[in-house]
Amino acid sequence: LPHLTSVKVAVNRGFAGPDQELHPRDEVALLPPVGGG
Fold first, then answer.
1. Checking DSSP bridges between strand 28-31 and strand 8-11, what pairing results, if any?
2. pTM of the entire structure?
3. Starting at the edge strand that comes first in sequence, how are the strands of the sheet with 28-31 ordered?
4. Spatial distance between the Cα atoms of 7 and 1, rounded to a whole number of angstroms
5. 28 partner at 20 to 30 Å CA-CA among 5, 7, 8, 36?
6. By CB neighbour count within 10 A (0-12 exposed, 13-18 middle, 19+ buried), where does 26 fall?
């Protein structure tokens, strides 16, 4: 998902890189940017 530059991607509860291979039973999470202060 190269167009989602501000979103972190996790696969199976670990952060994933842009070349992460996905398998049918993988759990994928998209983590949006968080602001605060």
1. antiparallel
2. 0.71
3. 14-15, 8-11, 28-31
4. 10
5. 36
6. exposed
State how far the Cα of 12 lies from the Cα of 33, in Å rounded to an integer. 19
3-state secondary structure of 14: strand
**pLDDT tens track for 1-37:** 566 778 899 999 999 998 999 999 999 999 988 887 7
Beta strand ranges found along 1-37 (DSSP E): 8-11, 14-15, 28-31
Token representation of residue 2: 């190269």
Residue 2: strand, helix, or coil: coil
User: What distance separates the 2 farthest-apart alpha carbons in the chain?
Assistant: 39
